[in-house]
Amino acid sequence: MSVRIGVIGTGAIGKEHMKRVEQRLSGAKITAVTDVNPAAAEEALHELGIKANFYPNDQALIDAEEVDAIFVTSIGPAHEATVRKAIEAGKYVFCEKPLSVTAKGCKTIMQDEMEYGKRIVQVGFMRQFDKGYEQLKQAIDSKVIGEPLMIKCAHRAPEVDAAYTTDMAITDTLIHEINILHWLLADNYVSVQVLYPRKNKHALPHLRDPQVILLETESGVLIQAEVSVNIKYGYDIQCEIVGEEGIVSLPETESLKIRHNGKQSTDVLQDWKVRFQDAYDKEIQVFINQVAKQEALQGPSAWEGYVAAVTSDACLKAQESGQREPIELESMPAFYSTERKVQLL
Ligand SMILES: NC(=O)c1ccc[n+]([C@@H]2O[C@H](COP(=O)([O-])OP(=O)(O)OC[C@H]3O[C@@H](n4cnc5c(N)ncnc54)[C@H](O)[C@@H]3O)[C@@H](O)[C@H]2O)c1
Ligand SMILES: O[C@H]1[C@H](O)[C@@H](O)[C@H](O)[C@@H](O)[C@H]1O
């Protein structure tokens, strides 16, 4: 069976996911789209050469007979209501991060999904499908460096648009580190502090950039995460884990090494779409495969969406207070406790 997908929100990542389903992945096709801006949907279909029906709103698309599964790729604040409608209709849903902009919203979604009785929600934490992070996970789990003690990581982008605000450094950007480090360590966060180094002159007046986020986990691992979104040289994701007996680092992205004019150089990527293309492909292919078999999903869960939301709430508080803020998670419902596989494909 070819999984028939309806896309809600046809902006930057909506279009990327439509393209990968139609041009690179197997087992699915895009049959329906909606967007609060119908022109965006029309443009996406035209640009990608896809024939799909336009629906006036999320509910109409979710209810359509020709839709087996939903992609929620609208803006963050719209996710919660749409995901709940999809669960209500019993349709599988892949939701981009954030699952909800509040921890309370994530809890409501978990409640709905547990009442439904099967995991049908997957959250777009694609780094769990990135080869480099999979290798880091295997290294940590094998204890080759002993127990992890400290992590230093960076999330850098060359520029952001004027709509990007100080809080988005957490909710839009750091959210990926929050999820992936929790997944790597399998260790809950207990506190966070946010520091602001000297401001980058390229940052607009309303934006505090860069930011340094200090997270601590239950077992005492200390994490120093840098978010820099005006750093000009490129889109660069770094992660170094210091253990008791060694260090393991996220591999650099593949690039030709050139020696020329007395210099040696490699390229730095400029764009998240390129940096994580394989990971996005994999997360969506995993989703499609499991929907086709009508299985309980195994990709990043609503629980992980909740953990990220609780943590980002505390980070936002720490941005304001300058103090170390506690992070308090509720215990994980047994429904979400099935062991995750590193390799899902
Ligand atoms: N996983 C990742 O790496 C990654 C990358 C980019 C974006 N995202 C996430 O994906 C989401 C979309 O981001 P984007 O960059 O594509 O944004 P965007 O602004 O380019 O696109 C969002 C689209 O959703 C539409 N929209 C807004 N409200 C809607 C609603 N209620 N119903 C239907 N459509 C609606 C807008 O008109 C727009 O076309 C965000 O939550 C973002 O955080 C994730
Ligand atoms: O900081 C950006 C991230 O690196 C991307 O992966 C996207 O999530 C995007 O929405 C963020 O603004």
From TrEMBL:
Residues 3-125 form the Gfo/Idh/MocA-like oxidoreductase N-terminal domain. Its EC number is 1.1.1.18, 1.1.1.369. The keyword Hydrolase does not apply. Pathway: Polyol metabolism; myo-inositol degradation into acetyl-CoA; acetyl-CoA from myo-inositol: step 1/7. Residues 137-328 form the Gfo/Idh/MocA-like oxidoreductase C-terminal domain. Keywords: NAD, Oxidoreductase. It catalyses: 1D-chiro-inositol + NAD(+) = scyllo-inosine + NADH + H(+); myo-inositol + NAD(+) = scyllo-inosose + NADH + H(+). Pfam families: GFO_IDH_MocA, GFO_IDH_MocA_C. The keyword NAD applies. Involved in the oxidation of myo-inositol (MI) and D-chiro-inositol (DCI) to 2-keto-myo-inositol (2KMI or 2-inosose) and 1-keto-D-chiro-inositol (1KDCI), respectively. Belongs to the Gfo/Idh/MocA family. Homotetramer. This is Inositol 2-dehydrogenase/D-chiro-inositol 3-dehydrogenase. The lineage of its organism: Bacteria, Bacillati, Bacillota, Bacilli, Bacillales.
